[in-house]
Specification:
With 257 residues, this protein is of the alpha/beta class. The protein has 9 helices and 7 strands; from the N terminus they run ααβαβαββαβαβαααβ. It has one domain: Rossmann fold, CATH 3.40.50.150. It has a 7-stranded mixed β-sheet, with helices on both faces. Helix 2 packs across helix 3. The longest helix has 22 residues. The site of S-adenosylmethionine has 22 residues, from helix 1 and helix 3.
Amino acid sequence: MPAFKQFFWKHWYQYLTRRIGSAPVTFLNYGFLPPEGETVKLEPQDEINRAAIQLYHHVASGDDLADKNVLEVSCGHGGGASFVKRYHKPKTYTAIDQNQNAIAYNRKAHGALGIDFRTGDAQALDFPENHFDAVINVEASHCYPRQEAFFRSVHRVLRRGGKFLYADFRTVADEPKVERDIRAAGFNVHSKTDITAHVLRALTRNSERYRALAHQFAPRILHPFVEMFAAVEGSSIYNMFVNRDYIYFSYQLSKSD
Ligand SMILES: C[S@@+](CC[C@H](N)C(=O)[O-])C[C@H]1O[C@@H](n2cnc3c(N)ncnc32)[C@H](O)[C@@H]1O
């Protein structure tokens, strides 16, 4: 089962990237729209991705990243990496994903920003111990079959006192295990926030756009699956957020000094 999960997500995202080609679809997350609306002032060209960017901004604001060495695990199509590098101004930004098609896409799409994009597995991060000041991970850990290994791996590559800024969703039944794994890996928990309502607001706002993208990039036979995957209004995943069968959370964590 773990081997199948790893195989499925790897090949699904590689397929998705091939379908998207060179089109500017640089985020693969559900977004974040709090009741107050805008949480960050954006350049006009970034407005189209406001909800997805605001999810990154919410996560990245858990630490002052200016002049730090930052690793992003599971960067997808690199929109978040581009945003954090341009707006939060880390000294270096390294971004990995197991989808080699996405890494090739990112090197072209965001090549001018000096981001080090690499292929890699979140559960076995190929970096020295105590290496990064902060690690970011957005809406990806639900894909990893060995989640304990992921948290241990992030803990290993963080320097002492470094921050792990993290957001994802789980079913109500699976959600308590996340914090058990986080603590077992050795992290201190500074804060945990339930952002389900904010994510749901973003999904509702963007449903028509996500539906149109699903139809643009997927063959007709896959439309129902892709609409569910994109959690458009009325899909089973959207309804799981409405009914709070899925909880979307964010954490600010640190490694002890
Ligand atoms: C929902 S997308 C989120 C991408 C990005 N964080 C964003 O918000 O746009 C999940 C990402 O996790 C990546 N992923 C899944 N399993 C992985 C693994 N074992 N190691 C590294 N990346 C993985 C996928 O390739 C995909 O890019």
